[in-house]
Amino acid sequence: KDLLDPAGVRWSRDIAYVSAPPGYRFARYGANGGFTKTWSGAAVAGSARYGTRFQYLIDLPPGKYRVRLSFVETWPDRKYRGGTGWRIFDVLAQGVPAISWLDVFSQAGEGVALERSFPVNVVNGQLILDFIAKVGNAMVSSVVVCPESHGQCGH
């Protein structure tokens, strides 16, 4: 079931991409069954897609876009192998590093949304986002993609 936030924005679940190569498309849904979105700077609900390496494939017309990713650390307790330095990963957009050596817990702490955005140019009709772990698992809580001129994604 999709989630409609207070601003009227619909957040959809991950769905498996039905064309090769395998991946996920149109993120915003966590592997644990919940949604993550920041409203007024606070995470309303938390979960994440995670793994040592995973990919989102988003079909888009050629053009310039802005990608906004949110990350909410869900494993903060050292007893359960969480905390600073336990999860470090890179994000590539179209095969080019967009975010390097990200440690969400060290930058935001437990349950707090950390947002990063970057521009991307789509020339072949598909945006490819790769999440690659360096330590532990890579993760993402939400993905928003907007035309570069649209204000929703911020700068």
Task: Give your account of this protein's structure.
The chain has 155 residues and is mainly beta. The protein has one helix at 104-108; strands at 3-4, 10-11, 15-16, 24-25, 38-39, 42-43, 49-51, 53-59, 63-72, 88-93, 96-102, 113-122, 126-135, 138-140, 142-147. A four-stranded antiparallel beta sheet has the order 8-13-10-11, with no helix packed on it. β3 and β4 form a beta hairpin. The radius of gyration is 15 Å and the shape is globular. It starts with a strand and ends in an 8-residue tail after the last strand.
Entry keywords:
globular; mainly beta; four-stranded antiparallel sheet
Largest sheet: 4 strands, antiparallel
Which structural class do the helices and strands define? mainly beta
What form results from the Cα inertia axes? globular
Helix content, binned percent: under 10%
**Major sheet strand order:** 8-13-10-11
Uncertain segments:
20-45
Gyration radius over CA: 15 Å
- What's the helix-strand series? EEEEEEEEEEEHEEEE
What fraction strand?
over 45%
Q: What would the average pLDDT be, to the nearest integer?
A: 75
Write the layout of secondary structure elements.
Layout (H helix, E strand, L loop, with lengths): L2 E2 L5 E2 L3 E2 L7 E2 L12 E2 L2 E2 L5 E3 L1 E7 L3 E10 L15 E6 L2 E7 L1 H5 L4 E10 L3 E10 L2 E3 L1 E6 L8
Antiparallel strand pairs: 1-2, 3-4, 5-6, 7-14, 8-13, 9-12, 9-15, 10-11, 10-13
